[in-house]
Amino acid sequence: TEIYTLSLHDALPIFQVVVTATLKGDMQSLKRFIGGLHYFVLAESLGGVESMINHSASMSHGSMSKEEREAIGVYDTTLRFSVGIEHIDDLLQDLDIAFAAMDLKQDNHHA
What we know:
Elements: H1 8-11, E1 18-22, H2 27-35, E2 41-42, E3 52-54, H3 66-71, E4 78-82, H4 88-102
Parallel strand pairs: 2-3
Antiparallel strand pairs: 1-4, 3-4
Helix pairs in contact: 2-4
């Protein structure tokens, strides 16, 4: 019997991309978006194999004033996404559900 040991590094070309997006709406619609996520986990740090999301305004840049954050492009509705090893169809469906949960019409915002 042969036993093979395969590390994650050997199995996959490992690289991680962080995507930053500023969503339309306000903090309430952003909370509904985050609450609608199943696969993306809210996290302070974006390292890992699971898909994660970071709300920079309240996490990494939380000690800065709103004016200071906005001067560097971090708005109240700015999120950073890190994609993990989950199946892409699951992640896309997760995002579709979360966007629907925002319900921008409820907040009287124009899409």
